[in-house]
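Input chain follows. Return structure tokens only.
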Amino acid sequence: MKKTSVRTRVLTGTVAAAALAAATVGAVSASAESSETPAGPAAAKADTQNKNLAQSSGLTIEAATRAAQASLDAATKAGQHVSVAVVDRDGVTRVLLKGDGAGPQAPVSAERKAFTAVSWNAPTSELAKRLAQTPNLKDIPGTLFLAGGAPIQSKGAPIAAVGVAGAPSGDLDEQFAQAGVAELAK
């Protein structure tokens, strides 16, 4: 009988173990794909007909990025250093761009302006005017009632918002936010 080296025996054992593992995974995978449990199709059918489900519209990450970049480009063209945030309907940040030279407070302010705009489906410049009648609005966590936020709508309902912060005035911030909203209408 021929004597094999330890190295050869280890390699042979490793190859055999790998082949066995691959065969087992393949068999389990094939079994899972081909077996159809009775609850599978019924469950899918029930989900598609369930009147308890809500459907919502939202921006793709590509659209949110285009809107943010258009806002940042408008600000840069005007010589302003800003940050831009795009949030979804739930106020969750989808895109955040901190422009070159933007101040340290700008990213958080942009997010809060966008959150405020989507929450009330109105530009934050309009919402800031409402503070005179209802000053406690400013106490709602995460909001910022300064011009610079603009909602993005679908059929009149808010689906996202753009917030811009860092320009010397809220009017400029809001102008740049509107440039992001307008980009999506193209």
